[in-house]
Amino acid sequence: MTAFLSLFRPSHLRKFWDVLRRDGFSAAMARARLYGRVILFNEGRSDLNSGASAHRHRPFLAFWESIAQEGAFHVTQAPAVLTRRRRIAVIGDLNLPQCKKYRVEQLTELWQENGVEVEYAHFLDFQRSADLIEKATHLCLYRLSQSEQASAYLYEARRLRMPVLYDIDDPLFSISAYATYSNAKEIGEGLRWHFLSQAASFASVMNACDIVSVSTPELQAHAGLYTTRPVFLRRNFADTESLSQGQAAARTVTDKMSASRPFTVAFSSGSNGREADFATIAADIERFVCGGANRRLLVIGHFDTSRFSPELLNRTETVPFGDYDEYLQTLAAADCMILPLTDDIFNRCKSGVRLIDATTVGLPCIATQVGDAGTMIEHGRTGFVVGDQCRWEDALSQLANDRAGAIEMGRRARAHLEQHWSARLAEPIIDRELVNWVMA
């Protein structure tokens, strides 16, 4: 009964509400089920059984004690030296669907080009994680902060003389990024302080690994301020399945040239706090949407539209996040995607995943120069990068006034995505040094 009641602690309810707002009902319930099993039945955490700390991580401890007593605890060569195959075990925090997709699941397709196998596990699933490490030649810790689990995985990897990579796609290790984050007031003071308090914990695990991989050049440079480990670039990309899903979603929309159909501007709010980003262009968007006939704004995900004027709100449709197929179908019904970001350290490190999502269904995107999305656009050909030479209203008006041209720009954007931003062990997706590190 005590364990059951602990499910309803205020801290647990706040976490559930945060995930619900950020990722939707399905993700919130999935995470609640995971932690419910952990709390009630000890599932997925064979290392977290009750008892003294010295008795935790039992799957490793019994094994370690046995081989130590047999004089076989230390190995002389790493698995990667003893075998010509390569197998990467990825152990991480897999609770965020977008992060799991772009930083973990896609690795299988990326590395298969070189015959490298990739398997992954949630870090709380100790038994599976331990099994993967025993079969692996390389360990990748994704988005992990300090914990007894992370320490055990690192300890076993070091016992095996296994190379260890730390992968991260947000500056979670950075006090300076969170302290100056423009969206902080939107996510709440309590959550902001939580992130600030955890930054050193992320940095500690990062610095315990051999090398680091990150998702954008700005994050690469920023991580270099917090670690002396080599930091390499492994950008997010469009995998084959996403390209196929996007193509299928685009085929369901057949009326984009209809004069009666409103020109639709999509804004995807993938996480809490995007109100601050949108606020930087709110006046421009309102002038455009309300300044012409047959125009509308489509907001996808978590967003507070109560701040909109009555005129803009009347022309705004809001759609919650569903699964990835539903998300792409919603995007496909739009005519373009807008990607505004406030200019701060955290946002400069942002990757272009929202651009990738939109481009898979053939949408042209209009992005700021902040973050990595702008580097993925050929300005004026596959989309627009807003700056000194281009304003939001100008770009939107050009697309709205030439729907055939907007459709063609979306087609070019999709072709550009396939040619330059799909799975490949080459730049701009991945640094050659990182490939060499795995294959050495």
Description:
- The chain is an alpha/beta fold and 440 residues long.
- Helices cover 49% and strands 13% of the residues.
- The protein has 23 helices and twelve strands.
- It has helices at residues 2-6, 10-23, 25-41, 58-69, 79-82, 97-105, 107-112, 126-135, 148-159, 175-179, 184-187, 189-208, 217-223, 240-251, 274-279, 282-290, 310-314, 324-332, 345-348, 353-360, 392-401, 403-420, 432-439, and strands at residues 86-92, 116-122, 138-142, 164-168, 211-214, 231-233, 263-269, 295-301, 316-319, 336-339, 365-367, 383-385.
- The strands form two sheets. A six-stranded parallel β-sheet has the order 2-1-3-4-5-6, with helices on both faces.
- β8 (295-301), α17 (310-314) and β9 (316-319) form a beta-alpha-beta unit.
- α2 (10-23) packs antiparallel against α3.
- The longest helix has 20 residues, at 189-208.
- The protein is globular and about 80 Å long.
- The chain starts with a helix and ends with a helix.
- The model is unreliable at 42-57 (pLDDT under 50).
Q: Which strand order does the major sheet show?
A: 2-1-3-4-5-6
Which percent bin holds the helix content?
A: 40-55%
Question: What is the distance, rounded to the nearest whole angstrom, between the alpha carbons of the first and last residues?
Answer: 53 Å
Count the strands? 12
Low-confidence stretches: 42-57
Structural class: alpha/beta
Estimate the strand proportion.
5-15%
Number of helices: 23
* Overall pLDDT level: 88
Q: What does the largest sheet look like? A: 6 strands, parallel
Radius of gyration: 23 Å
Shape summary: globular
